[in-house]
Amino acid sequence: MKKVINMINPSSKVAGVSLPELKKTEKEIGAIFPEEYKELFLATNGAKFGEWTLFPIQSNGLAALTIDIVRQNREKRPINLPNDMICIGENTKGDKLCYRIRKRFLQELIFIWNEKTGISKCKASTLSEFIDWYVPKGNSTKPKTVGTFTVESGELIVTDPCYQVDEEDLHIILSNVKNGKWTASIIYTDEEVVESLFAFYGEKKPSGKWYECEKTIPVDSAQAGIFDFAVFGRDEAIQFAVKNVYDIEIDEDGLKYYVACCDVVASDAQGGVVPGGAISMSGYGDGIYEVKVKYNPSKEVIGVLIDFGEEDE
């Protein structure tokens, strides 16, 4: 939480509330806050990040507030907001940041309720994750090189590493791929969410037109990558001890390779390289994503891009 507090606009930081004030607010809204929310508001009763502002809690240390989290959810609650949602903040467009109530507890999942469409979507698994994503980062849209890998088979497989090679409908296989050293880079949005994973032959980004593949790829483990077909899923390719940050039980063939991918995606860069390929987080999570390809004059594949951009609503 200290990292998140440091990312909040300094001008919005004020003295935190007391634990009794938190409990009083919970009683008034009829639900119990997640622990990280309590931790944040014990440190500061005010938080602005990017275009978002969290509603403060009425405190004895502050003059009467014109708006606070209780008043927002009683007097100024949007008419069409689902009954199981509690507004905890808003942006400059009027969209609301919400928790969802489950059995008197507010879940950690973060939802955005759209002011114009009245549609709510889950945008992050925790408040700290949401803040980390939505704090503007300098030059975050500039591609970041995350490493190199080698292609030797002349084929690439573009897929979520949780799938097996024989699940042909779930991935794209590219043939006539130029062998040699490939460079991997990640492009981020302004909120530092992965927008695309880009791999290309050599050290210089290829010019020319992108061609969309006829197929798209599904993602079920919030990550996807570009791999040498002959290496993908082979545990023997991982000649090092995996960290296994998610404590996955490695009890089947191919799981060590998958765990190595998960470890890379769990890094601050949200991606990187593994033996024989490149991997990254798939934007905001699971979904169906487009894949684009570039060719050289000899019709060899020399560039592959997975586009994790959100579809227009």
Strand content: 25-35%
Distance between the termini: 32 Å
Number of helical elements: 6
N to C succession of SSEs = HHHEEHEEEEEHEEEEEEEHEEEE
Protein name: Knr4/Smi1-like domain-containing protein
InterPro entries: Knr4/Smi1-like_dom (IPR018958), Knr4/Smi1-like_sf (IPR037883)
Domain Knr4/Smi1-like: 16-133
Structure description:
It comes from Sporosarcina globispora (Bacillus globisporus). The chain has 313 residues and is of the alpha+beta class. It has two domains: 2-134, SMI1/KNR4-like; 144-307, no CATH class. The protein is 16% helix and 33% strand. The chain has six helices and 18 strands. The strands form three sheets. Strands 1, 2, 3, 4, 5, 6 and 7 form a seven-stranded antiparallel β-sheet that branches. It has a six-stranded antiparallel β-sheet with strand order 8-11-12-18-17-13, with no helix packed on it. A five-stranded antiparallel β-sheet has the order 10-9-14-16-15, covered by helices on one side. The radius of gyration is 23 Å and the shape is elongated.
Write the layout of secondary structure elements.
Blueprint: H1 2-7, H2 19-29, H3 35-43, E1 47-49, E2 52-54, H4 69-74, E3 85-91, E4 96-102, E5 105-106, E6 110-113, E7 120-124, H5 127-134, E8 144-151, E9 156-159, E10 172-174, E11 180-188, E12 194-201, E13 211-219, E14 223-228, H6 255-265, E15 271-274, E16 277-281, E17 287-295, E18 301-307
Antiparallel strand pairs: 1-2, 2-3, 3-4, 4-5, 4-6, 6-7, 8-11, 9-10, 9-14, 11-12, 12-18, 13-17, 14-16, 15-16, 17-18
Protein name: Knr4/Smi1-like domain-containing protein
InterPro entries: Knr4/Smi1-like_dom, Knr4/Smi1-like_sf
Domain Knr4/Smi1-like: 16-133
